[in-house]
């Protein structure tokens, strides 16, 4: 018998920019397998940079300045080990026991694998992780296009 997937709040984060210009970050929420668009958040980055890790750090810092927002049971970041490790370090620094996974993409921007910290025990549904990641990417690109004035 397979264990049931963990239900709860998943937050996914993504960054969008063109060579550091009009840089934005977003947070999306998937809760119990359903997207919660009313809880999506946009962050216009204050520091113009081509550094996705620094941009992600800024978004996470600004997000966790809101104690009134519910805490997630899982954080999903777009990228690789660097983004995952930085996010895990922030959670440790802030005393938050929130597991972090990273979705690595292939050259066609399709999910290739989900990285997790070896000490992280997960029971989350892969479908929910990938849904959160794809929603974050879609939302980030849409917000970035809006800022560039190219909304179609």
Brief sketch in words of this structure:
The chain is of the alpha/beta class and 152 residues long. The protein has three helices and seven strands, in the order E-E-E-E-H-E-H-E-E-H.
Number of helices: 3
- Approximate shape: globular
Q: What structural class should be given to the helix and strand makeup?
A: alpha/beta
Order of helices and strands: EEEEHEHEEH
Whole-angstrom Rg: 15 Å
Write down the overall mean pLDDT: 85
Q: Hey, roughly how much beta strand do the residues contain?
A: 25-35%
* Distance separating the two termini: 48 Å
User: Unreliable stretches, pLDDT < 50, 5 or more residues?
Assistant: none
**DSSP, total strands:** 7
Name the helicity range: 25-40%
Largest sheet: 7 strands, mixed
List the helices and strands and how they pair.
Elements (H helix, E strand, L loop, with lengths): L8 E10 L2 E11 L2 E2 L5 E4 L7 H12 L10 E5 L2 H13 L6 E6 L5 E6 L9 H23 L4
Parallel strand pairs: 1-5, 5-6
Antiparallel strand pairs: 1-2, 2-3, 2-4, 6-7
What does this structure look like?
This protein has 152 residues and is of the alpha/beta class. It contains 3 helices and 7 strands, in the order ββββαβαββα. The chain has helices at 52-63, 81-93, 126-148; strands spanning 9-18, 21-31, 34-35, 41-44, 74-78, 100-105, 111-116. Strands 1, 2, 3, 4, 5, 6 and 7 form a 7-stranded mixed beta sheet that branches. A hairpin with a 5-residue loop joins β6 (100-105) and β7 (111-116). α1 (52-63) runs parallel beside α2 (81-93). The N and C termini lie far apart (48 Å). 33% of the residues are buried. The mean pLDDT is 85.
């Amino acid at each position: 018998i397979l264990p049931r997937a963990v239900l709860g709040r998943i937050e996914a984060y993504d960054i969008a920019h063109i060579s550091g210009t009009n840089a934005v970050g977003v947070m999306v929420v998937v809760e119990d397998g359903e997207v919660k668009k009313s809880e999506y958040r946009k962050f216009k980055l204050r520091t113009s940079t081509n550094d996705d890790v620094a941009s992600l750090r800024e978004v996470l810092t600004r997000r966790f300045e809101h104690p009134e927002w519910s805490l997630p049971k899982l954080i999903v970041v777009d990228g690789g080990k660097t983004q995952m490790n930085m996010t895990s370090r922030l959670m440790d620094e802030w005393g938050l026991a929130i597991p972090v996974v990273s979705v690595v993409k292939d050259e066609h921007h399709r999910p290739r694998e989900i990285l997790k910290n070896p000490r992280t025990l997960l029971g989350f549904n892969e479908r929910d992780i990938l849904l959160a990641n794809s929603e974050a990417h879609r939302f980030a690109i849409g917000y970035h296009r809006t800022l560039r004035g190219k909304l179609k």
